[in-house]
Amino acid sequence: AAPVAFIGGVSRAAKAGILMKGSAALEALARIRTAVFDKTGTLTLGGAELVEIDVAPGQEPDELLRLLASLELASHHVLADSIVRMARHRKLTLSQPRHVREHRGEGLEGLVDGTAVAVGSRPLVLGDGPLPKWADNGEKRHRGAQVLRVFLALDGRLAGIFTFGDAIREDAADTLGALRSAGVARIVMLTGDDAAAAEKISASLKLDAAFADATPADKVGTVEAEKATAPTMMVGDGINDAPALAAATVGVALGARGGTASSEAADVVVLTDSLKPVAEALRIARRTRGIAL
Ligand code: ADP
Ligand code: MG
């Protein structure tokens, strides 16, 4: 391969807001046949708006939001940023959380003002346990809707459920279409979210497969299985995707928040918070290889 052509490709990508970590990343991108996408914050906007807070009898929605946001101060998840912003917008005074344990891709727990707070997915917070009666209505209303649900327990008891909108990114369909035109034969989605949410998005974006309830370790397993069949690109965000990005033929981190584990694990970093550059990166790589060969 002619190094000059690859350097040209790397610099064309940079102009489009795509950071390629060397010409090896560009060469590998040109060979990609399978694309694996994370859902939350990658194919979707990842909870940019708060739709509703369901609370247990005796609980105050604003106080629960304050406790949630305080705990999220310690998280690097896409959701965490927007939750903290929402709480500050409502002029809630956050407290520094203590003794925090983060369960990547599932949620976190810690002490806020002396109360044990746990937040995250239903399995993390409730295990296999049933929903209490007060939560039934919200559960029915939001089942299958394009939302993200965050469960919050205080001292081990479910106290509230937050429902955030999780709309598909505006440029998702176009980006996937452009990838297919550029020769990507298989597009797969991975999510830590449940099957109802995954199926809805999978149908709407005409994906070839979608895997729900995936832990960060499951994500690595799927990427490795795909890679055994064809050169595989993994596109993700959030620190919980770092291992999957590292396992892929090419890892692409989206909307880089400088110095996160994901942008370090990735071979390609998209600097803007949008999907389109992912297809552009692939196009540049294919074109550059055409010139170099
Ligand atoms: P995806 O794999 O699609 O990116 P995530 O693994 O990021 O999804 O999140 C899956 C679920 O885990 C979310 O719907 C949410 O309930 C929960 N979750 C993960 N991280 C957090 C967090 N920092 N705060 C609250 N909930 C979280
Ligand atoms: Mg995610």
TrEMBL record:
Family the entry assigns = Belongs to the cation transport ATPase (P-type) (TC 3.A.3) family. Type IB subfamily.
Q: What is this protein called?
A: P-type Zn(2+) transporter
Tell me the domain of life. Answer: Bacteria
Which species does the entry assign this protein to?
Mesorhizobium hawassense
Where's it found, cell-wise? Cell membrane; Membrane
